[in-house]
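Worked Example 4.2. Consider the chain below.
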Amino acid sequence: MSNADDIRGQYRDSSKLARRANLHKYASSPGVSWFDWIAQKASLPDSTRVLDVGCGPGWMWRAGGFPSTLDITLADISDGMVSEAVTRVRGFGRYRSVEGQQADAASLPFGDHSFGAVLACHMLYHVSDPGSALDEMVRVLRPGGMLIVTTTGIDNMSEMYELAHAAWGTPATDPGAERFGLEVASDALRARLDDVETSTVSNVLRVTDGEDIVAALTSYPPGEHASQHQLGTLRTMITTRLMAENGVFSITTRQGLIKGRRRPLAVQKS
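Applying the procedure from the previous section yields the following structure tokens:
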């Protein structure tokens, strides 16, 4: 999904995103939560002015590992998401300041060198030109500032996407990773930044309620427009798998974080 109007429609609020996020309650090795893991790997310095591009509903900022002295600007192409995120993150009551701004990632309404850190979490695969969006994020970073991107591996949740392939013919791989997955993202950041590091994390979701898988796969196109016949095919496959695996449908996740620092102005590539 790369059309801006389609993205606004899909992410008018967090309801569809929540249907996908709901699967992660089945993580077999909960350990550190995904958002806490991001906070640890990001290692944002105290008193940093941070831009969160494609902030969504702001769930990430509940993580305990982010410094409370941050000044956070939440930006998203969806006004509804910005409003929801600002309300939520201010409600946490733990950051020095929280502001919101409706913004297109490909044309950020901020001046050069405005932020000490920019985060783009699981969103660059939604934009039509991820390279142009990255260039904008680098532009608004101060020299030495940190750009942090999260995305998925091509094999992320392959067991679930194989169901979608059989039910309605979409590729049997993570659609986000097809567009801008870990390998592509790592190369893109290395072309623009210094000290680039990539970290990955995997888990297994041991799903016991097949309707949660149905809800996830029908929360975005083409699944949200699936016919009753297609939905019946999907439910039959899930039920068969659950019966064969003692009531558990295992889905393997692979996600990652790539971060790097903006080069000094004197050595910026033309």
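The chain has one domain: 4-156+173-202+255-263. The mean pLDDT is 94. Compare this with Example 4.1 before moving on.
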